[in-house]
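Internal tracking record. Fields below are filled automatically when a chain is submitted to the structure queue. Please do not edit lines marked as system-generated. If the sequence contains nonstandard residues, flag them in the REMARKS field before resubmitting.
Queue: standard
Priority: normal
Entity type: single polypeptide chain
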Amino acid sequence: MQPHPGFQVGKPDLVPITNPTGSGLCAKDSSGNLVLYVKNQGAVATPAKMTAATVRFPKAGKTELPRIHGGIPPGAIVPLPAIEIPAAACGPDCVFTVFVDAPPQIEESNELNNFAVGVCIVD
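SYSTEM-GENERATED OUTPUT FOLLOWS
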């Protein structure tokens, strides 16, 4: 199997995860806030500088998440700060897109996999 054309060996590779259980729906905390994760699937840890993430709700705009400080080791999955799901974004399904390393600050082995689309069912 050939690596992706943008893939480079020996670098971190951040990918967003909408739910580590693989259920297909988003993860929520006990307060009903959206919880997202970032995984470093690269070969080395991310630099200790801050990692940024953004969540975009088509019906309600975007939310900048507080930055993660410290490096993310290879293979590690780290939760991002939970955010309130905007009521205007849902009805009852809530579609969102999460972007990690946005804007790009970390040189990664693959810059093309920094986003994922997720769905929440809001009660």
